[in-house]
Amino acid sequence: MPDQPALPFTFEVLYGEGITLSQFDNHIIRRLSNMKSHFLDNAAYEAALAQEDTVLYEVYEIHRPEIPGELLHGLSIVHPGKVGNEYYMTKGHFHTVLETAEVYYCLRGQGCMVMESPEGDWAVEPLRPQTVLYVPPRWAHRSVNTDSKEDLVTFFIYPGNAGHDYGSIEKQGFRKLVVEVDASPQIQDNPRWLPPEVR
Ligand code: F6R
Ligand code: ZN
Q1: Ligand 1 pocket, mutate which of 89, 93, 168 (most atoms under 8 A from CB)
Q2: Which of 33, 46, 99, 23 is nearest to 68 (CA)?
Q3: Amino acid 6: pLDDT
Q4: SS3 for 58?
């Protein structure tokens, strides 16, 4: 299908029991089975998967051409839950064009964004309603839902030509994990993380 002409448009964020968009072009569903090797506790992952291939997160995208000048945008919803003691999260990625940033606005829930640069610098920033998060160019990003009951819902906007590099994170992991300890979220070192010198 040819890309739509660049006419102005509006749509609505619909708040109900869940949050959705009045208009979208693509609905991505990521299940446990799509997250192999992302969680630290592999035995807990396999046990959970044997029970049910649960939906961990969903993304609603507005289609725009993937070219410089355009802005891709949509809604990301991470459901509550854990694999072992590690909270449900997105796969996480670098942008293929590293020098592209992203803005997230949190609409509902409690969680954080785990980020890291190719050099291994890291940051974890909180996400809660009314938080605006700026992910600078070069930083990989992964959203984590640390609430036990509520979805973590964010609206995201990023450059049309950014692209997604999932492979680097699949190989090296993120340096930090967010796990539950004594009923609270805690940031821990990822023992499987590969530092830049051994990648
Ligand atoms: C786009 C972006 C978000 C994520 C979404 C799902 O650049 O960062 O739209 O794509 O939160 O996460 P991933 O893509 O890591 O599965
Ligand atoms: Zn991104």
Answers
A1: 93
A2: 99
A3: 77
A4: strand
Distances (CA, A) of 89 to 9, 136, 143, 195: 31, 20, 6, 22
Place of tokens 């980020």: 115
Distance 50 CA to ligand 2 centre (A): 30
Can you tell me the distance from the alpha carbon of 79 to that of 150, in angstroms, rounded to the nearest whole number? 7
- Candidate of 58, 144, 156, 166 to mutate for ligand 1, largest count of ligand atoms within 8 Å of Cβ: 156
Q: pTM above the 0.90 mark?
A: yes
Q: What pLDDT does 1 receive?
A: 60
- Tell me how far apart the alpha carbons of residues 105 and 131 are, in angstroms, rounded to a whole number: 6
Which residue is closest in CA terms to ligand 1's atom 2? 156
Pairwise CA distance, residues 65 & 142, whole Å: 24
